[in-house]
Amino acid sequence: xxxxxxxxWLKRARRGPMDPVHTAxxxxxxxxxxxxxxxxxxxxxxxSLERWRELMAALxxxxxxxxxxxxxxxxxxxxxxxxxxxxxxxxxxxxxxxETRPCERMDEAHAGLQRLMQDRWGGGAFAEVLDAGKITVGxxxxxxxxxxx
Length: 149
Description:
This protein is mainly beta.
């Protein structure tokens, strides 16, 4: 089953607001054009809609998912234990390099959120860009199948 790109957010400045956008450009070795806070391995951060809903149910809240401060939200894609997998968004690929660990900013959004996010990759994943180009909310999302020997 394919997933869907549900949301895109850009962060203008460190600790700045997360701006929702409909379309964004992925740059090789950089991440999203106009986004701050990136490194060689952590160019894009991704959360799962379903995992976010689980976290909100556990909190008894309905926070805007932008509070997670991730760049992308995908649906019908399980990010848990996805290190080294390749995620395709539209015609572009992202290599998952690890789990995004929740920071103290999560408790600024809601008390207890940071602790809840520590299980099962609740903070999502971080990735590097393998293909440059445009992504748009609504694009299909799927795991790339491994090459067979």
